[in-house]
Amino acid sequence: MKKFLGVLLASTLVFALAGCGSSSSDQAESNDTQQQETSDESVTIKVGASPSPHAEILRAAQPILAERGINLEVVEFTDYVQPNLALDSGDLDANYFQHLPYLEQFNADNDLDLVSLCAVHYEPMAIFAGNTASLEELADGAQVGVPNDPTNEARALLLLEANGLIKLKEGTGIAATKLDIEENPKNLEIVEMEAAQLPLSIGSLDIAVINGNYAIGNGLSLDDALAKEEADSLAAQTYKNIVAIRPGDETREELVALQEVMQSQEIADFIAETVDGAVGARN
Questions:
Q1: What's the CA gap between 119 and 79, in Å, rounded?
Q2: How far is CA 28 from CA 20, 31, 35, 41, 281, in A?
Q3: What tens digit of pLDDT does each residue of 80-95 get?
Q4: Domain harbouring 98, CATH code
Q5: pTM of the entire structure?
Q6: Which residue among 156, 186, 206, 213 is least crowded, i.e. fewest CB within 10 A of its CB?
Q7: For residue 238, which of 98, 106, 126, 111 has the smallest C-alpha distance?
Q8: How far apart are CA 35 and CA 258, in angstroms?
């Protein structure tokens, strides 16, 4: 009987040890599987953008980034203030809606230090007809709408100057305001308003100088513009639209990949084919 009990206990111990060995092996395999699944998971980045054309361009980049294991989430904004505040607060990984002079002015005004990751494309600013059909028909005292933020207002004034409507004080350049108008032969009334409101208010103005993204987003075609910045102009070099990030994030792998894709020939081709008047960085 004792011998039988000894054999039974030994057998039980062998099976118990075998069971433990099997459990450890299963656990190791399970851990390996979990690690593999984790490594296969995509990284998500959130990028804020104006609805058109910036969000559209980002969506063209989504499948290219997905092939690299990066999920691009596009967050749309309809103003020029919140995307930078959201980026600074960490709610976004990047944003894409502005040119570098605007970002630099925004940083100075709001004590921020956001930086450019890369330039992507250039959208011409253009003059559109409101209640007056042509620049030649502008009456004395006609109302001209321009953006009210400093960098885009200066840009609008430079375009008006380029078309002989006003003359600015020498040297004011991209820092010009309506106080820097030296000559105004038609006594044009410069009406400052938020850039996004200009295409919506064009019916109450004689003409309006409108940013490309807001013109496109409101169904205005650059083909119908009374005048626009040219692709080989100083404005085209100065006002390229950029992807902005927080300082120190330049080397994040997912943002390096974003830069490569946004400056790729595929995206340049998409911009050329779909965005009215815009020029991609590679063109």
A1: 20
A2: 12, 5, 11, 20, 49
A3: 999 999 999 999 999 9
A4: 3.40.190.10
A5: 0.74
A6: 186
A7: 98
A8: 25
Whether 8 is covered by a domain: the verdict is: no
Token couple for 216: 């496109």
Q: How confident is the model at residue 42 (pLDDT cuts 50, 70, 90)?
A: confident
Name the more confident of 40 and 188.
188
Residue corresponding to tokens 């005048």: 227
Contacts of 179 (CB under 8 A, 6+ apart): none
User: Which helix (H) or strand (E) is 168 found in, with range?
Assistant: strand 167-168
Is residue 146 helix, strand or coil? strand
CA dihedral 153, 159, 162, 168 (to 10 degrees): 0
- Decide if 48 is inside a domain: yes
Tell whether the torsion through CA atoms of 249, 252, 258 and 260 is positive or negative.
Answer: positive
